[in-house]
Design goal:
The complex is a heterodimer of chains A (about 150) and B (about 400). With about 150 residues, chain A is mainly beta. Chain A has one helix at about 30-40, and strands at about 15, 20, 40-45, 50-55, 70, 75-85, 95-105, 110-115, 125-135, 140-145. Chain B has helices spanning about 30-45, 70-80, 95-110, 125, 130, 150-165, 170-185, 200-205, 235-240, 260, 280-290, 310-320, 325-330, 350, 360-370, and strands spanning about 15-25, 55-60, 85-90, 115-120, 205-210, 210-215, 225-235, 245-255, 300-305, 385-390, 395-405. Classes of the chains: A mainly beta (about 150), B alpha/beta (about 400).
Chain lengths: ~150, ~400
């Protein structure tokens, strides 16, 4: 006899074999995560048209070139938008914290944790610079953006 | 031969029956599959058709609490039907309304006689959606590790929108206040017994994800669920039915999967320049109006799946009820007031009817209003309704224009 599934608390949510929340790497993004290990923020640049692209891109949607190269971002940009989370999704994350989207100098937008350098409130347009730290206890080191 | 113009689809298909199954917290826990099957059965009985008549079935994506690939196959399997056309329409929540559009195309072109569309979820009864919901709306690699919640992903749009157009929290709060008034008149609304709220109540509610506070956010459907289904047939065939509602126009627009990637989109509407203030609803609505050869001024009521106050305002702009950035003046001037404004979210909307997770209850509400089947909240003689669904953090949008006079056009 097989064990009965206990639905009383619901079941863990997975997408296919993947647990939600993992930083899974794929071949096309491995260069980004290798950069994070070195403390460098890596984005892609199209050799065909020169456009900088999000690290996820596999080919250039602008000129259709496959010739994308990893380049190191200056790590500087501005806050495009943000939201301070007061109700965290799980116990691993300690609210309140602020996540937002940064517009890098190269024109690429990246999502990440916004860390306020001097305790003042974060605002759209604030200049930021990348840093690398864990955003949860025993979590992986990730790019975060410190208000300059 | 040139392609048939989209206008040929206007009023060519009609809804002839609605099935709606509501489970309250006091009711027995049932699966999301059972929830939808109750609705399908009721819709088929309502139309007077049996399982041998169903030529097409289109479903929304699998419910969060019953994850299965190819959800449409589960419905086919239970109903013991043999559709010629069948698919799960997977453009997030917009897919629920898009099912009606595929059904319309199928019956209008004579491919099948009757199409069945269904959706619904018992999500809150089975899974902790606060924990897991962002998992289907965030980039697992580049966003999820930072601990986003669904409200915080939408809030990225809200923060930017309010910044660009000088919209204050008290401006958007009015939408929650007016939606609540409608919910007090709907027997199944989650907030039916909670009384009216004020702008001050919204501003004093606890913060969830700035700029959103609790009362800026949709309510989950009180620990229960709503299953919905409709039967759609050609307008010619629909003339034999009681009070059919025709589909006068429709449109869809999908722009991205994750909110960060929306900003990586350029050179095409609604993102000629990367932005977080104009949604795909603008494109979907333009196509729907063109197909129906009408404009927003012809619409008698509007239903939307927007789950946050600010998004209702943005969507009102994108649907053409006011210019971009003018939503605060439109809403502030009483544009959607329960008393005298454009009837908007007449069951209370996501904010006060509740988010019945992937339910098509906003669309069936429009059908019920046009059929004169909305006791307690029935509008006086409405003829045209606009329904807007979206999903993902504004990733996909569907718009439908409905009419109760289409059979005579």
């Amino acid at each position: 006899m097989t064990a009965r599934i206990d639905w009383s608390e619901g079941l863990p949510f997975k997408i296919g074999p993947y647990e939600v929340g993992l930083t899974e790497t794929a071949p096309e993004t491995a260069g980004y995560w290798a950069g994070v290990e070195r403390g460098e923020l890596m984005i892609k640049r199209c050799a065909g048209c020169g456009r900088h692209l999000h690290p996820r891109r596999i080919f250039c949607p602008g000129c259709t070139s496959n010739d994308l190269a990893w380049v190191r971002s200056s790590g500087r940009g501005t806050v495009y938008t943000f939201s301070t989370v007061y109700r965290a999704p799980t116990e691993e994350f300690e609210a309140p914290y602020t996540n937002g989207i940064v517009e890098l100098e190269e024109g690429v937008f990246l999502y990440g944790r916004l860390v306020d350098g001097d305790g003042a409130e974060i605002a759209i347009g604030d200049p930021v610079e990348v840093d690398f730290e864990a955003v949860r206890a025993e979590g992986e080191v990730l790019p975060v953006y410190r208000v300059r | 031969m040139t392609a048939m113009p989209a206008s040929a689809l206007s009023d060519a298909a009609s809804i002839v029956a609605v099935g709606m199954h509501v489970v309250s917290p006091a009711d027995e826990r049932i699966s999301s599959l059972e929830l939808q099957l109750h609705a399908c059965r009721d819709a088929m009985r309502g139309a007077g058709i049996d399982r041998t008549d169903v030529g097409a079935v289109f479903t929304g994506r699998a419910p969060m609490s019953y994850t299965a690939m190819e959800w449409n196959m589960r419905i086919v399997n239970e109903l013991k039907i043999v559709p010629k056309l069948s698919s799960e329409i997977t453009v997030h929540g917009a897919g629920v309304l898009a099912t009606w559009q595929y059904a319309a195309m199928a019956v209008a072109n004579g491919l099948v006689d009757y199409a069945l569309c269904c959706s619904g979820c018992m999500g809150r009864r089975w899974v902790d959606l606060v924990k897991v919901n962002a998992g289907v709306e965030a980039d697992l690699q580049f966003e999820m590790p930072y601990g986003p919640t669904t409200p915080s992903l939408y809030a990225l749009w809200g923060q930017r929108y309010m910044h660009e157009f000088g919209v204050r929290p008290e401006d958007t709060a009015r939408i929650a206040v007016e939606n609540r008034k409608w919910a007090l008149h709907h027997p199944d609304a989650a907030m039916r017994d909670k009384g009216e709220i004020t702008v001050a109540d919204v501003l004093a509610s606890r913060p969830i994800a700035s700029p959103l506070r609790l009362l800026d956010c949709s309510s989950w459907y009180k620990g229960g669920g709503v299953g919905s289904a409709v039967v759609i047939t050609s307008t010619g065939r629909a003339r034999a039915f009681d009070r059919p509602v025709s589909i006068s126009g429709f449109g869809q627009c999908t722009t991205h999967e994750w909110v960060t990637d929306r900003l990586g989109l350029w050179g095409i509407e609604p993102s000629i320049k990367p932005n977080l203030v104009t949604t795909g609803a603008k494109v979907a609505a333009a196509d729907a109006y063109a197909m129906a050869a009408i404009g927003p001024e012809d619409v008698d009521l509007v239903e939307t799946s927007a789950p946050f106050t600010f998004l209702n305002m943005m969507v009102l702009e994108d649907l053409g009820f006011c210019e971009k950035g003018e939503g605060k003046h439109f809403v502030g001037g009483g544009g959607i007031d329960f008393d005298g404004g454009l009837p908007f979210n007449t069951n209370g909307g996501y904010l006060s009817f509740g988010q019945a997770a992937n339910g098509m209850q906003m669309a069936t509400e429009a059908v019920q209003q046009l059929r004169g089947e909305a006791p307690g909240r029935q509008l006086a003689d409405p003829h045209r309704a606009l329904v807007h669904f979206h999903g993902g953090p504004n990733a996909a949008h569907s718009v439908l224009l409905l009419s109760n006079e289409g059979g005579s056009r």
